[in-house]
Each structure stands twice: as C-alpha cells, then as structure tokens.
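Escalated from tier 1: flavin mononucleotide holo job.
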Amino acid sequence: MDAIECIRTRRSIRGFRTDPVSKDALSEVVETAMWSPSYKNSQPWEVMVLSGSKKKELSKYMVELFEKGTPPCPDIPEPVTWPKTEGARIADLFRKRTEVSGIDLNAPEILKKAKVANFNFYRAPHAIYLFQDSSLTPWSLFDIGLFAQSLMLAAHAKGLGTVPQAFATDYAHNIKDFLNIPASKKLVLGISIGYPDPASPVNAFRTDRVETDEIVTWIE
Ligand SMILES: Cc1cc2nc3c(=O)[nH]c(=O)nc-3n(C[C@H](O)[C@H](O)[C@H](O)COP(=O)(O)O)c2cc1C
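Tier 2 regenerated the structure:
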C-alpha cells in the first residue's frame, strides 16, 4: 500500500482480535513513528506499551475509578464547548452513528458504556500511552500529534488497527502513579492497538469528511 492509500484507508478500530501482536511488530511501528518531524528535532515523545496482566490491571483500576464517580483529571482538559463549525461536525458524527446503530449515543447509559469500553482499550491486546515533559510548549504537543499519526499509519500498513483515545487519559494522575511515571510528565494520549476483528460491527462504521472547499482557500 502506498502512502496515499495508507492515509486514506486508516480508520479508528474499536473491535480487536484477542491474539497479541509480536514485540518485533510493535517495535517496528514505534520505530517508524520516530521518523516523524519535530520542532528542532527535539523528538518530544515518550512511549509506554502495555500488554498482558499490567494492561488488564490498569483497565480494571480505571473502571473502578469511573464507577466510584471519581472526577476525570486528564492532563489535557477535555473541551467543554466547541466553536460552531466544529460543533456542527461533531453533532453530525453523532447523528450518523446513531442512525447506523439505532442507539442514541447521547443517552447517559450509552455514554457510560462507551467510557468503560475506552478504559478497557476496546479489548485490544495492547495499549500505548504517549507522554511528554510538562514544561514543553504547545509546539511539542503538535509534534507528538504527528508522532501519533505516524504510529497509527505504520500500524495500518502492517495490518494492525488502532484508535487514539483521549478518554484513556481521564485519570492521568492515577495512571501515572500506577505506571511509575513522574508527575512532571504530561499524559497526552492513549492508543489501543491490535489486529482488527473483521466481524466486529463497530468497525463497519466509516466517518466522512467535509468538502475540500469548506477548508481550503486557493489564492493566486
Ligand atoms: C486526539 C484524539 C482523541 C480521540 N479520543 C477518542 C476517544 O477517547 N475514544 C474514541 O473511541 N475515539 C477517540 N478518537 C477517535 C475519533 O473519534 C476519530 O478519529 C474520528 O471520529 C474520525 O474517525 P476515524 O479515525 O475513523 O477517521 C480520538 C481522536 C483523536 C485525534
């Protein structure tokens, strides 16, 4: 698959096979992502790959925190409001997903299930956490975003599925304690990774994109 096809066919995967991915394959995905550009080649990304019992224990811990009603404390706060344009795109996504699934995705019990599925990393055999030093500027957050995309594309090129997950950072403080990560690090993103389950109905849904004219201005 060439780069154009890889970018255009990557999708968030939320249904995984349970069989693990080899350490070699996971290493190759991470090493490929390391070739992402970064401000002055600062490479401001730190990666933790979780598998096996440690991953399961962390999921259980996050679900417990959630069920106890612990308020989320992500290092990057969840947006409370969106500008009109982006807000309308989000509403559109929810409307289409509701139409396809027949489930009201805004219903509180469905939101609760969605959170728990996130904390369980959608049953993927591995979870990746991306960290960076808290004293870095927003430019470095930009860099780690590029890293995340490269990682997901490299995974896709190797037949692996991924989903980036802000929700998997909800309990950043507890997660860092659990993983022995210093409090001075910012937990940026969680990414579930594994082989996509082709039979999973949740993987059948495809997001769309706005028309190009909506975002591009051509000036000559
Ligand atoms: C920074 C970021 C955070 C996201 N957080 C979540 C999340 O917590 N849970 C989830 O299921 N998907 C999450 N997503 C996935 C988006 O919903 C998804 O990328 C978007 O709907 C477009 O769909 P696609 O990835 O299939 O192209 C996140 C994506 C990004 C880039």
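Strands lie at 46-51, 126-133, 161-165, 185-194.
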